[in-house]
Write a structure and sequence with these properties.
By secondary structure, this protein is of the alpha/beta class. About 25% of the residues lie in helices and about 30% in strands. The longest helix has 19 residues. The protein is elongated, with a radius of gyration of 23 Å.
């Protein structure tokens, strides 16, 4: 144990008094930093409850993100939460889907149970109805797999059921694989010159059939009418993708670069820590 860092104490070191001396005397471990509170616009960790619900009464479009029991990677929607011309709703009941202009099925830690939840809750039937009305449907990773005709899991990677019927909104089939894909991705939006960055983290391969057309390069996304499925997380962090997607809703998107903004916030955090921590001792311990 190299030392302690103390933070989140209202930002005033005077409140701590001689606490650091007291701590070192009793533990023989020094305090290497007293870091005042710094408010940053950064993604939360794992707690969904910490995601801000930002609603604008003057919003021109409603984007509904399905809150499944095993939802994952929801920080990739942060850039949408701060778009001024849309209302983002986290769907927990069927009523939350009313008036939606777009529906997003997010990633999932457990695809089979989440798909079962959609069917049992009536959300699946509602999504079918909205899709038939021309509402934009987007599935990402596990959400993409759920939109297909079936998920085959003969090796019981995620389910004891060898084959699960999907929502049938995309003419694709998914085969679960024991090996998990985890990689940074750089893809092209088919039919445009958009170069998009994101990441993949999923079990399974999804095979396209005749009813769909390519949406992303390298077989990482397909489209069927107003329904789209992709394997790449983080697409909304790309300004070009986010603006184009919102344009289809009749909404003007912000031109702010979300990745650039996030990196600037991380730089602020790094500088803040450098200012308030004994970096010499920390770097020495890390052989830097």
């Amino acid at each position: 144990l190299l030392g302690f860092l103390v933070n989140k104490f209202r930002g005033d070191p005077k409140l701590l008094g001689n606490a650091m001396d007291w701590l070192e005397e009793r533990t023989q471990v020094p305090t290497l930093g007293v870091v005042p509170m710094l408010r940053l616009a950064l993604p939360e960790e794992d707690a969904f409850s910490l995601i801000p619900e930002i609603k604008e009464t003057s919003a021109m479009a409603k984007v509904a993100i399905i809150m499944t029991p095993f939802i994952s990677n929801f920080d990739e929607f942060d850039s949408l939460l701060y778009e001024p011309n849309i209302e983002v709703v986290w769907v927990k009941t069927l009523a939350d889907l009313e008036g939606a202009d777009a529906v997003i099925l997010a990633g999932s830690k457990q695809v089979a149970p989440d798909l079962d939840y959609l069917k049992r809750s009536g959300v699946a039937a509602k999504i079918h109805k909205l899709a038939s009305q021309g509402v934009m449907i987007l599935g990402i990773c596990g959400g993409f797999q759920m939109l297909g005709t079936s998920i085959q899991d003969s090796d019981a990677v995620e389910s004891s059921t060898a084959e699960i019927t999907g929502l049938g909104l995309l003419d694709v089939q998914t085969h679960m694989k024991a090996t998990k894909v985890t990689r940074q991705s750089s893809v092209t939006r088919v039919g445009s010159n958009f170069k998009l960055k994101g990441y993949e983290i999923h079990h399974g391969e999804t095979v396209a059939r005749t009813g769909v057309k390519p949406f992303l390069s390298d077989g990482l996304g397909f489209q069927q009418g107003n329904v789209t499925g992709v394997y790449v997380h983080g697409l909304f962090d790309n300004t070009s993708f986010r603006v184009e997607w919102l344009e289809k809703l009749g909404v003007e998107g912000s031109q702010e670069g979300w990745l650039e903004r996030t990196n600037l916030e991380l730089d602020k955090l790094a500088n803040h820590l450098s200012t308030h921590c004994n970096m010499q001792s920390i770097e020495k311990a890390l052989n830097l």
